[in-house]
Every structure is written in structure tokens, then in C-alpha cells.
Amino acid sequence: MARYIGQRIMTPTPGRLEQVINNQVEIFKSTDRRGSVAIAISGTDQDEVATNFMYDSISEYEAHQDGVLGDTIRLSGIDTRGADCVRTRWALARVIEPTVRPSRPKYIRRNLITAKPGELGNLVNALKELREVFTTVTPGIAVQLGGNNDTVRTLVVVSSMEEFEAYSDELASDKTKTYRDRVAGMIVGQHSVLSRFVHVNQS
């Protein structure tokens, strides 16, 4: 089970979306590394390509970084892929609760929630309780390492838009209201992005 998620979020230069997608997918086709590439379809004001790398331990993540930083060819590849973008961002998160994925994942919803100062632990606990209420999906929970340290990420992976709609209905239902109200009192804001996978390597 993956314990850490490394992510590169890229905003392609206009006209370079296909090239950015192809370049990121090639990373997984040329290696056996677990991960995925997804394009945003809702929740952003520009094209966005997210590449997710899965790690079983922090040592595995560090070894991956050592391999990249110690290889001029791989570093050059990062530069080349970045040249097709107006912006790139890196993120690392520690998995608190894993996302239960369907056998054929197609869509992913990433929700970034910012806790009020001092409320991060309480927020994580409330989200863990809410996670157990769902019957349509089982969301994952992860905390940021770097950046805003009060940020919690929840992840929902589904196999169809119908399944996503069922999850959305359940999230808005009366049975989750108590948990939603608790969460609302602990946060300063949240923002979600819905994306579609273009490549998944779960091996």
C-alpha cells in the first residue's frame, strides 16, 4: 500500500496540452513505477496535468529523488517537459488513510482543505470518521509535507461519472451532515478539482 504520494502539477502552454500529456505518460511506459497521469476537467481555470507517483515508504521516495538528481539525462528530461508549461508545481503528501480504487479507475476528485490554526489533528480525525460513513466510495486522506502544513487532501477515485454522482449525492445527504458541519467549523476553506485519468500504472 502506498504511504506517500509525489505529485507534479503542470499547466501547459496554450497549444501544448497533448505534448505535455504524452511526455508524462512516457515516464510510466518506460519504467515499472506506480502512478498515474490525469487531466483536469472541472475546478481549474486553465488546463492542468497532474502526474502522481506512488511510494511505499519515505525511503523509496528519497531513492527516487537521488536517482533523478544524480542523472543528468533525467534532469534534462524534467527541463524539457517543463519547457512546455507556463507553470509547474511539486507536492509530497503522506497517506493517512488509503483511497480504495475500483479495478478500472477513470476519474479522481482531489479536495484540498485548509484547517484553521491548531485544528489539523481534529480535522484529520473528523475526516477519518466521515470516511467510514460512505457506502459508494472510500475516500483517501493525506497530509501535505511542505507548502501549507495546515492542508489536508482527500481523494476519491471512481470508475464512471455515474459513480461520482452517487458519491456526490451521498456527500450532500443528511447522513453526512453532522460530519460536514463539524468539518466546516475547523477549516478556513477548501477547493476541489475533478480530473480524468489518461494513464494508470497500478502494478
Structure description:
This protein has 203 residues and is an alpha+beta fold. The chain folds into two domains: 4-93, Alpha-Beta Plaits; 95-199, Alpha-Beta Plaits, CATH 3.30.70.100. Helix content is 33%, strand content 36%. The chain is built from six helices and eight strands, in the order βαββααββαββααβ. The chain has helices at residues 17-29, 58-69, 72-82, 120-131, 161-171, 177-184; strands at residues 4-12, 35-42, 49-55, 85-97, 107-115, 140-144, 151-158, 187-201. Strands 1-3-2-8-5-7-6-4 form an eight-stranded antiparallel beta barrel, surrounded by four helices. Helix 4 (120-131) packs antiparallel against helix 6 (177-184). The longest helix is centred in the N-terminal third of the chain and has 13 residues, at 17-29. It is globular and about 55 Å long. The N and C termini lie close together (11 Å).
Rg, rounded, reads: 17 Å
CATH architecture type of the largest domain: 2-Layer Sandwich
Query: What is the number of beta strands?
Result: 8
In the CATH hierarchy, the third-tier topology of the largest domain is known as Alpha-Beta Plaits
Task: Give the terminus-to-terminus CA distance.
Answer: 11 Å
Look at the structure and give the CATH class of the largest domain.
Answer: Alpha Beta
Spell out the blueprint of helices and strands.
Blueprint: E1 4-12, H1 17-29, E2 35-42, E3 49-55, H2 58-69, H3 72-82, E4 85-97, E5 107-115, H4 120-131, E6 140-144, E7 151-158, H5 161-171, H6 177-184, E8 187-201
Helix pairs in contact: 4-6
